[in-house]
Structure formats: structure tokens, C-alpha cells
Design brief:
Blueprint lengths: L1 H14 L8 E8 L4 H9 L12 H5 L1 H12 L6 H12 L5 E8 L5 E3 H4 L5 H19 L13 E5 L7 H13 L3 E5 L2 H7 L6 E7 L2 E7 L1 H12 L3
Parallel strand pairs: 4-5
Antiparallel strand pairs: 1-2, 2-3, 6-7
């Protein structure tokens, strides 16, 4: 549980310097209500190392959590060994002891939780936190937030990426992925490629003809010059 919070702290440090359409995102956690008593027992257990759990004040402080833990481990309603194993796995998995959310900080100082407003916002506003969460998940899977990082490829693939996001949000999302040390591969339709061009290192176009596909390397600098020329007034 502490390691999960440390990893989110690392990601929040990266997110603190980024703005997504003027907004700032922050990962937050809180104890899972259904396991709150067991959570308190676990988090306080370090205070009784070397002492007897049964004879200490610790047992009295966390009697309800203690009883809940043993009730779930020894309940008579478990129908089979598979159910018992599933129950044990749920209690052993640190992720089940926390609820996760994203706090949105607005330019005017207001704040809101994504879980409370996701159904009321537009596509771009709800898509941005999705990419933030996905990048964080990749970083966790590749162990990029740990002191000794794993030697992994760090590859993150996105198909038809950022279709509902404006340029500013897209740039911030890509920057977060880069700052999170991910190697990002984006696949997007040609009409969306121009907006991504300033934020990528290289470009490849896939062309299909007569049931065959060809990959063509595009000169990014030349493509940018062409876009700038097309944007100039006649």
C-alpha cells in the first residue's frame, strides 16, 4: 500500500508541471470503505513488531478489523476451496484496500473529482484523464516509478490516439508519457497526424495497394515546412 502511494507520488510530481487545456491532474487515494477496518489494522501493525498481537493494545484498538479479517478467512459460507482461495487473494491484494481517483485542478482555483464529473463533461475533457491513467498504468507495469527501474522496452501503443482532444491537451498528454519514460507508438488517421507532428520524433505512413501494405518513412522537417507554407496567407 505504501509502495502504491509512493508510485502515485512520483507520477504526481511529473503531473504537477503539466497543464491540460489549463487544467492540472493529480492522482489521489483513500481507503476502501468495505475494508477500512482491516486497512487500519494493517497500517498500524508496524507499531507492534516484536510484541504479541494478542496481548498488546493493538488488538484492542483494532478489534473490529481483527474480527472482520478472521471472519472472512474462516467463514462457514465458503462453498468450495476455489472460493476460499479467491477470498484469500482479495485480502492479500493491496489494490483492494484503496480507492483511486483523479483530482482536477482548474485555472480559477476550483477542484473536482473525475469520478463525480465524468458523465457531465465533453469527450475531450474525459479522454484526457484516460490517457493520463493509461500512461500511469504503463509506468507501473514497466516498474518505471521504482528506485531501481526494470530494464524493459517501455513500449506504449495507442491506436487512433487523441482523436477527441485539442492540440494543447494532446501535447501535454504526450509530454507526460515522455516524462514517464515511455516509448510511445501512435497510430492515427492522416487527417489527425498534422496536429501530432510537432510532438513526435519520427513519422511513418502505411499505404495499402492491391492487398499489399507498404511502410514509407516521412521526413518530419519537410512535412512541417509544408504545413507552415500551407498555413501562410496567399
Amino acid at each position: 500500500i505504501e509502495e502504491a502511494r509512493q508510485q502515485l507520488g512520483y507520477l504526481n510530481t511529473t503531473l504537477s508541471a503539466l497543464r491540460f487545456g489549463g487544467e492540472r491532474f493529480e492522482f489521489i487515494t483513500r481507503p476502501e470503505p468495505s475494508l477500512r477496518q482491516v486497512y487500519d489494522l494493517i497500517m498500524d501493525s508496524q507499531a507492534v513488531l516484536g510484541a504479541s498481537l494478542f496481548d498488546s493494545d493493538f488488538r484492542q484498538r483494532h478489534q473490529q478489523g481483527w474480527d472482520l479479517l478472521f471472519e472472512r478467512l474462516t467463514t462457514g459460507t465458503v462453498a468450495s476451496m476455489e472460493d476460499a482461495v479467491q477470498e484469500l487473494r482479495e485480502l492479500q491484494d493491496y489494490r483492494n484496500y484503496l480507492q483511486y481517483d483523479i483530482r482536477i485542478h482548474y485555472p480559477n482555483g476550483d477542484r473536482a473529482l473525475l469520478s463525480q464529473i465524468s458523465a457531465k463533461k465533453s469527450g475531450g475533457e474525459t479522454t484526457t484523464p484516460f490517457y493520463v491513467a493509461m500512461a500511469a498504468s504503463f509506468a507501473q507495469a514497466y516498474r518505471l516509478t521504482q528506485p531501481r527501474q526494470a530494464d524493459t522496452i517501455r513500449l506504449a501503443l495507442f491506436d487512433e490516439a487523441f482523436g477527441k482532444m485539442d492540440t494543447a491537451r494532446t501535447a501535454s498528454a504526450l509530454q507526460f508519457m515522455v516524462d514517464s519514460q515511455l516509448q510511445v507508438l501512435l497510430a492515427t488517421p492522416p487527417d489527425k497526424a498534422a496536429g501530432l507532428l510537432p510532438h513526435v520524433d519520427s513519422v511513418r505512413t502505411v499505404v495499402r495497394k492491391n492487398n499489399h501494405s507498404f511502410v514509407i518513412e516521412i521526413d518530419k522537417s519537410e512535412m512541417l515546412k509544408q504545413l507552415e507554407a500551407d498555413a501562410e496567407p496567399a
